[in-house]
Structure formats: C-alpha cells, structure tokens
TrEMBL record:
It is found in: Cell membrane. It comes from the Eukaryota. It comes from Stephania yunnanensis. It is a single-pass type I membrane protein. InterPro entries: Leu-rich_rpt, Leu-rich_rpt_typical-subtyp, LRR_dom_sf, LRR_N_plant-typ, LRR_R13L4/SHOC2-like, RLP23-like. Residues 32-68 form the Leucine-rich repeat-containing N-terminal plant-type domain. This is Leucine-rich repeat-containing N-terminal plant-type domain-containing protein. SMART domains: LRR_SD22 (SM00365), LRR_TYP (SM00369).
Length: 968
C-alpha cells in the first residue's frame, strides 16, 4: 500500500515538476488576461463555434491566441475570418467587442477582419492598446466615426480599416488623429468615407506627418479636391503661418517627405486638377494608382527618377490629355501600365522603342484603350517579350499590324479593336502565341484588314476563349480553324464577309457558347436556334442581317433558356412567334424585325419581366395586341411598325410607364387615340402611329407628354382641331440635345465613373456618332388626316421644332403670324389645306428652312421674300393658291390674271425628302434606345466580368447596325 502511494506520489511530483515544460518550455497564460479573453468571448456571437477551444486553463493554448514564450502575456489575437469574401458569413463572429480586451496590455497584433459587428461603433478602447503594431479591421461592419483615439497608437506599423462590404458606412470626418500614428508604415482605409475630411485639404497635411509611411491606400474614399491645388493653398498657408506650426511650414508638397513611400493608391476618389509634379520625388514608389478620379491635363514627365515603378495606373480619369510622357519609356521595371479611358493623344512608338532598349523588359500589361492615340504599332513591340495583355482598342491608330507580334509568346490578350488597321493578318502574326486567350481586332474601317490564313491552319494556341474579328475580311468561307479551339465562349464575326453556310461542326462544337454574333454577313441555312441535345448556355445571340431561313423553334425555351439578347432581324425567318419564347424569362432584348414572320402574337408576355426592347417591325404579323404586353413593366421600346396588326391598343399598355418610344406605324389599327398615353406614359419621347386608321380627335392629354420630341400621327383618319395645348409640350420648347431627353446623362456618367466602364464607352461612342442636327431633332407630323380648324397660335411656342408637317388636312384660317419664331424649323409643310389670308412676312425669319410647301391652299397676296426664302425658289412651293403673287411665281402682283399651270401630283423629290427625315428619326430613336436599353442589359452582364470589354465593342457595333437597319 505504502509502495503504491510512494509511486503515485513520485509520479505526481514528477508530473508537477515537468508540467510547465510539457508545452515545449512555454510560459502559461496570465490569469487576468484569461478572464479578459473569456469576457470578450462572452460578448461575441460565434455561430460557427470558432472559439470552442477557449475554455481550457491555459489560454495560450487557445486557437487564435499567441502568447509571449517567456512572459506568457497575450501578444497576438488573430481572429481573421478564414472564409473568403463571398462565403464569410459561415465563420463570422458578431455581437459586441468587450472592453475587457484592454486587459491585454501587451497585445501587439489584433486582427478582427472579416467578422461583422453590424452597425456598432468601432470601440474607442482600441486606442488604449498602446503596444499594438498591427491592427487589422477590414470588413468588420463597424459604422459611424472611426474613433480618433486610434491616434494614440504611436507604435502602430500597420493599420487596415477597409470597408468593401459596407462601403462608406464607416467614416472619418476629421483625419487629425492620423498624425498621431508616428510609426505607421502601411495605411489602408479603402472604402472608408472621408468626404468630410477632404472638404478642406488638411487630410493631406495629416497624412503627410506619417514620415515612415511606405504604403498608402485610400481607394474609393470620396476624397476630393485637387492634388495640385492643395499644394498651392498649403504653400500660402506656410508663409502665413511660419511662426506657428512648424510642421505646416514644411509641407510644401504632398508626400514630399515620403521618399520611402512604395505604394500610393488613391484611385476611385474624386480628385480633380492635374497630376502633381511633386510625385517625381517619390523615387521609391513601386505602385502608383490614381485611376478613376477626375484628373486632367497632361501627364507630367516625372518618371525619370521613379525607376522602381512597376505599376502605374492613371486610367479612367477621362480628361488626361497629351502624349505619353517621354520618361515612361525608361521604366525598365514597369510591369503594368494602364492609361486607358482618357483623352491621350500622340503615338506609342517612342514609348515602346524606349522600353525595348531595356536589358530586360518587364512590361506585362499594357492598357491604353479608349484614348485618342494615333500613329502606328511599332515593330519594336515584338521586343517586349514579357507582354501578356495588350489593349489598344478605341483609339485612332492605323497602318499594318506588325508581324513582330508573333514573337510575344506569353501573350494572352490582344485587343486592338476600333482602330483603322489595314493590310493583312497572317499565320506569322501568331507564330509563337501559344497562350492566346482573347483576340479582338475589329478595325473601325470595314474590310480593309484581311484575316488571311490558310484553310487548314492549325494555330499554335488552342485555348482561345474570345474572338472578335468583326469588320475584318474573314470570309468568304466560314473560318474552319476555330474548330481547334475548345474553350471558346464568345464568338463575334460581325460584318466579316462570310458568304457560306454555317458548318455542321459549329453547333456541336460550341454548344456551350455564351455569346455569338454573326450579324451582317451572308450566311445561309436554317437559323441556328436549334441546338442538338442539351440546352445551351447562350446569353447573347445575334445573327441579324444574314440569309438565314427556317423558323423559331417551338422549344426555344429549352434550347436557349438563358438568352438575354436575341436578334435575328433582317433574315428570311418565317412562321409564327412561338409562345415558348415567353419561357426565356431572362430576355432583355428581342429583335425579330424585317423577317417573314406571320401569325399573331402569343399571349404570354407577362413572363418577360426584364424585356426592355421589343422590335417586331417589318414582318407579316397580324391580329390584335395582346393584353399581356402591358405587363412588360421594364419595356422602353415597343416597335411593331410595318405589320398588319389591327384593333385597339390594349389599355394595359398604360402600365408600361417606362416606355421611351412607341412605334406602331403602318399597321391597320383603328379606334380612337387612347387618352391614357398622355396620362401615364410620361417618359415617352417618340410616339409614331403613322399610317393606321386611328380616328376621332387628338386627345388634350397628349399635351402632358413632357418628354415628347417626335410625334407622328400622319396618314390616319383623325379629325377635330389640333389641341392648342400642344404649345405646352415642354421638350419641344426647350432645345436640349437628344441625349439629355431620355436619360439623365449627368447622373449616368457619375455612375459610370464609379461603376461601369462599359456604359461609359457606349455613351462616349454615341456622342461621337451624332451630328448635332440629329441630336436636336424635334418634329410634329399630323399630315394626311381630316384635321380642321385653325393652326393653333400656341404651336409657335415650340421653339425647338425642326419639322412641322400639317399637310393634307382641312385646316382653315391664317398661318400664325409668329411662325417666324420657329427659328430651328428645317421643314415646314402646310400644303393641301384651306389656309387663307396672306403668308406672314415673319416666314422669312426661318433661316434654317430648307424645305417649304404651302401649295394648294387659299393663300392670297404677295409672297414674302428675303433671307432663306430667296433660296426656296421652286414655284411648286406656292402653286395651287390662285391668289398668290410675286416671285417665284410668274404671276405678278396686282395682276388679276389667274395662273393655270398646276401639276396634279406632289413633287417626288420632296416626297423622298420626307422619307429621309422620317428614317433619320429612327436613327435617333434607336440609338438612344440602345443606350438606354444596354444600360439595363449590362446590369445583367456585369456579373460576368470577362465579358465587359467584348460587350462594349459589340454594343458599339450594334448601334451602327440598327442605324443601318432603319436607314434602308
Ligand atoms: C485653394 O485655393 C483655391 C484657389 O487658389 C481656392 O479656390 C480653394 O477654395 C482653396 N481651397 C481651400 C481649402 O482653401
Ligand atoms: C523634389 O525634392 C527636391 C529636394 O527635396 C526639391 O528641391 C524639389 O522641388 C522637389 N521636386 C518637386 C517637383 O517637388
Ligand atoms: C482627338 O484627336 C484629334 C486630332 O488628332 C482632335 O481633333 C480631337 O479633338 C481629339 N479628341 C479628343 C477627345 O481629345
Ligand atoms: C417550353 O414551352 C412549352 C410551350 O410553351 C412548354 O410546354 C414547356 O413546358 C416549356 N419548357 C420549359 C422547360 O419551361
């Protein structure tokens, strides 16, 4: 018994003696700190039980806790959420951060990133943890002000408080506290709202006191003002204040003391003004990102001494101009250069030649797209062997594409669309390009670049994901080499000169394509909407303007269930529109115009909640408009013209309150014009009901259409008077260009800068497309009806009016005296009415007029003369008014002889002119429509990042195409 006890005792002593050394000689937890951690744990919500180990005696053994080996004090608490951004909730801690943490007096490292203390104030006591060297609080969902007490952390080296998830909810209105962080090396406060802090320029001053800073990240923090202006102000301040604050006297330039700064990220803010020269002194800088601000002016030539620079991003400032600075060509370390989305001009040869002289070039990413660059692609590009990504799209470069490109064996992305390339692209251009994934050439001028490879070419690459050879001469045969590419998910051969059938292998090889554009070729065969076997993933399908025949398959909802955009316009597709089309609920754009479709519309539209553009015009469709069309609450454009629809418009259409344009022209609609158009479709810019059998009066309610710019009710059976209140159509009074009428561009471009660079390009592109006349087009055409009464005087209020056609009615009374105030009027047709009295002399004030017709009325007296009227000297303008006299008629005034010479038909040239005008309206309407439409459309595509660029090229193309479509 005693022996056993002895052994037990010995064991006990031995264990007791060894105990402290059992954990590799580590000191154990300090009791007070253990209690503090437990209180901290108790305040937390821990749904995934991450802190399960926090119960044993020795808190130094707990998960996420690290103690000092010797003292046993807790030094590090690393509670960072291990899950990634999207799945973070699975492991997020929540609840309250208990001030008991203050007991951890030796804490040097605290990381709570990725946990979510929703909406609560960031605790002030963090500022008491004065041994902290690392404090990481990214995406912790704290709101309100960052406590200025943080400024007491004078030992802190790393501070990260980014708020991507709850962007801008956390703020700091005064950054004074920052200057207390005397040891800070890295500061990252991306997505923290600093808008107040930057309302004066002192934020810069405070940041500038951080003399050890090597990394500064303040991305998307609503910082504003001018980086340059702030110096001048501070310079002045220093002179005023010399005796006072010594520090301010030193601050002549921002960051000038920070020659150790390695990273400076101030992108996605609102800085204006120019890029400061003072940056030249940041000679240690490796990364400089000032992208997506509002900086302008030329890029200063400041890179001579910045030889460590490997990333320079000044993209998306829109307003940067001038050439690439000379000193850029000396940056042999440069890996990434992004100057895209600006207004830079000049060529790139000097830069590329410069870099090609480096012993080792490092340049991997060259993004210069969407600028105003000119010149050629230099041969020396082939020396930049590290290049993986080249984007030069959307510039004005020209010439041949150098064969030396074929040497860039690491190249994955070549996007040079939207320039004026010429010559040929051959197999040699791809000689070593085994890694190519994205190829987009798409020259701006059609067919001057030939894609000349042999029909049995096997490219060195096999992993192409995207190809866009639009506007290149690829055909006449369908390129068979793409068969070798098994990963293709986007194919765009718009206007590629293909005169062929679609090969059999195509649909089977590419069953999983997401984006297919074959428009504007002469491809024959059955429209490839039928995929064998399983359903396809395709989102965008555009084969418009080819020679496809066949019909829309009745199981299209099963073969292509993911479509967002379907365009088979201008083919020979026949048959009916199957009701299964309503099963494609993602559909945003449906364009089936100019085919041979027949039958009536299906009755199931309520399912297409996302539909924004419905264009079925120019087919042989008939029947009535189904009520369910009125369920399309997103609809912006309803185009059903040139069919044989009849009956009334269903009153449900008044629910489509977003409609921008309705075109039901050239059908057989009869009925009175619905009053609800004026009451409920307030956004309507274009209303075209031409050539139907609408009858009755024009409702007064139409006068409420405050966005209306184009009203075409010609060739109907309308009677009664022209409403006087037409004079109140406010968009016809105010002369705003088209792009301000249907979308508020100012707010869109705000959004673009921060959200969506694709849309920006669409908008930019569109502005370049337009000539001003079209942008200002405002028109009323009520011709060929039975309208009676006088021309309302109020019409002369519509100062924006460029076209007014009231011909072939029964209008009486005089031409309004003040007709001459319509100074923008280009076309005025009042012919074939019973207008009487004299022609007002003010008509000679219509200085923009180039088409006038007053024939076949009962006008009397002398024809006014002067100004533009001198150029309108065709007597047919006035004929059929037996009592008119003077030039250009041969009837002299005060001569009672009547004039017999009167042809019975309208001059055909003038008829054609009218047609020309009418088509141009559509040009405007559709282009505007597409911009509006794509804005929403892109919303859905936005998720798929890799599409964005390809999309934008494509969108620009489609705008062109649609314009063509309406012009023919
Ligand atoms: C800085 O100076 C400019 C003009 O020199 C002035 O417009 C601006 O308001 C000043 N900013 C501050 C914060 O004083
Ligand atoms: C760069 O620093 C030098 C010396 O510190 C100074 O004289 C010069 O003005 C600075 N350059 C700029 C552009 O601020
Ligand atoms: C682009 O350059 C041309 C001349 O090459 C110039 O006329 C035009 O204004 C420039 N456009 C922009 C946006 O800078
Ligand atoms: C496709 O549409 C047809 C006809 O409308 C319908 O019978 C069928 O159930 C739909 N298929 C799917 C998968 O929705």
């Amino acid at each position: 018994m005693a022996a056993i006890t002895f052994i037990q005792l010995s064991l006990f002593l031995l264990l007791g003696f060894l105990g402290p050394y059992a954990n590799a000689g580590r000191a154990t937890c300090v009791a007070a700190e253990r209690r503090a951690l437990l209180s901290f744990k108790n305040g937390l919500k821990d749904p995934s039980n991450r802190l399960a180990s926090w119960q044993t005696e020795d808190c130094c053994e707990w998960k996420y806790v690290h103690c000092n080996n010797i003292s046993g004090h807790v030094e590090k608490l690393d509670l960072r959420n291990p899950l990634d951004y999207d799945t973070y909730e699975g492991a997020a801690l929540g609840g309250k951060v208990n001030p008991s943490l203050m007991e951890l007096k030796y804490l040097e490292y605290l990381d709570l990133s990725g946990n979510c203390f929703r909406g609560s104030q960031m605790p002030m006591f963090f500022g008491s943890l004065n041994q902290l060297r690392h404090l990481y609080l990214s995406d912790t969902c704290f709101g309100g002000q960052i406590p200025p007490q943080l400024g007491n952390l004078s030992n802190l080296n790393y501070l990260t408080i980014t708020c991507l998830r709850t962007a801008l909810e956390l703020r700091s209105d005064d950054l004074r506290w920052i200057s207390g962080l005397a040891s800070l090396k890295h500061l990252n406060m991306d997505y923290v709202n600093l808008s107040q802090a930057s309302s004066d320029d002192h934020w810069l001053l405070h940041v500038n006191k951080l003399s050890s800073l090597t990394e500064l990240h303040l991305t998307n923090s609503l910082l504003q003002g001018s980086l340059t202006l702030s110096f001048t102000n501070l310079t002045h301040l220093s002179f005023l204040d010399l005796s006072g604050n010594l520090f301010e006297a030193l601050v002549l330039n921002p960051f000038v003391k920070h020659d150790s700064l390695v990273t400076l990220n101030l992108n996605l803010n609102k800085f204006k003004g120019s890029i400061p020269d003072a940056l030249a002194n940041l000679t240690s800088l490796k990364q400089l990102d000032l992208s997506a601000n509002g900086l302008g002016g030329p890029i200063p030539d400041i890179f001579v001494k910045m030889t460590s620079l490997h990333t320079l991003n000044l993209g998306s400032n829109i307003n940067l101009v001038g050439g690439l600075p000379k000193s850029l060509g000396g940056l042999c370390q440069l890996k990434t250069l992004d100057l895209s989305e600006n207004s830079m001009s000049g060529g790139i040869s000097e830069f590329v030649d410069g870099l090609s002289k480096c012993a080792n070039t490092s340049l991997e990413v060259l993004y210069l797209q969407n600028n105003n660059l000119t010149g050629r692609l230099p041969d020396s590009l082939g020396h930049l062997k590290s290049l993986t990504n080249i984007k030069l799209g959307g510039n004005k470069m020209h010439g041949h594409i150098p064969m030396s490109l074929g040497r860039l064996s690491r190249l994955e992305e070549l996007e040079i669309n939207g320039n004026s390339w010429e010559g040929a692209i051959s197999e040699a251009h791809f000689a070593t390009l085994k890694n190519l994934k994205r190829l987009s050439i798409f020259p701006s001028s059609s067919k001057s670049l030939v894609f000349n490879v042999s029909s049995n070419w096997i490219p060195p690459f096999a992993g192409l994901e995207l190809i866009d050879l639009s506007n290149c001469r690829v055909g006449p045969l369908f390129p068979s080499w793409i068969q070798t590419q098994r990963s293709l998910h986007q194919i765009t051969f718009d206007n590629a000169g293909i005169i062929d059938t679609l090969p059999d292998w195509f649909t089977s090889t590419y069953a999983n394509l997401s984006f297919l554009v074959l428009s504007n070729n002469q491809i024959r065969g059955t429209v490839p909407l039928k995929y064998n076997g399983s359903s396809s993933q395709i989102n965008v399908f555009d084969v418009g303007h080819n020679l496809f025949s066949g019909s829309i398959p009745s199981n299209i909802n099963e073969t292509m269930p993911m479509l967002t955009h379907l365009d088979v316009s201008r083919n020979k597709v026949n048959g009916a529109i199957p009701s299964s089309i309503c099963g494609i609920t993602s559909l945003g754009i449906l364009i089936l115009s100019s085919n041979q479709l027949s039958g009536s519309l299906p009755h199931c539209w309520e399912k297409l909640e996302a539909l924004q553009i419905l264009d079925l015009s120019n087919n042989s469709l008939s029947g009535t408009i189904p009520d369910s069309l009125g369920s399309l609450g997103s609809l912006l454009f309803l185009m059903l013209s040139r069919n044989s629809f009849y009956g009334e418009l269903p009153s449900s259409l008044q629910n489509c309150s977003n409609l921008r344009s309705i075109d039901l022209g050239e059908n057989n609609f009869s009925a009175e014009l619905p009053k609800w158009i004026g009451k409920n479709l307030a956004s309507l810019g274009i209303l075209r009901l031409r050539s139907n059998s609408f009858r009755g009066g024009i409702p007064q309610e139409f006068c409420n259409l405050s966005s209306l710019r184009i009203l075409d009710l010609a060739h109907n059976e309308l009677s009664g008077a022209i409403p006087h209140c037409f004079g109140n159509l406010s968009s016809m009074i105010m002369v705003a260009p088209v792009n301000q009428f249907s979308v508020n561009t100012s707010s869109i471009s705000e959004q673009i800068v921060y959200v969506d660079d694709v849309t920006l390009r669409v908008i930019k592109g569109r502005e370049l497309e337009y000539d001003t006349n079209l942008r200002f087009l405002v028109s009323i055409d009520l011709s060929s009806n039975h309208l009676s009464g006088a021309i309302p005087m109020m019409l002369t209020n519509l100062l924006g009016l460029s076209i007014l056609n009231l011909s072939a009615n029964s209008l009486t009374g005089k031409i309004p005296e003040k007709i001459g105030s319509l100074r923008r009027l280009e076309s005025l047709d009042l012919s074939r009415n019973q207008l009487s009295g004299e022609i007002p002399s003010s008509i000679s004030d219509l200085t923009s007029l180039n088409h006038l017709n007053l024939s076949y009325n009962e006008l009397v007296g002398r024809i006014p003369s002067g100004n533009q009227l001198q150029t309108l000297e065709d007597p047919s303008i006035y004929e059929g008014n037996s009592k008119l006299c003077g030039m250009p008629l041969s009837l002299e005034c005060q001569d009672n002889e009547t004039h017999d010479h009167a042809p019975n038909h309208v001059n055909e040239d003038i008829e054609e002119d009218e047609e020309g005008f009418e088509l141009k309206w559509f040009y405007v309407s559709m282009a505007v429509g597409f911009v509006v439409g794509y804005f929403g459309f892109l919303g859905t595509l936005w998720i798929k990042k890799e599409w964005r660029n390809a999309c934008s090229m494509y969108l620009e193309g489609i705008i062109d195409r649609v314009q063509l479509l309406w012009r023919n």
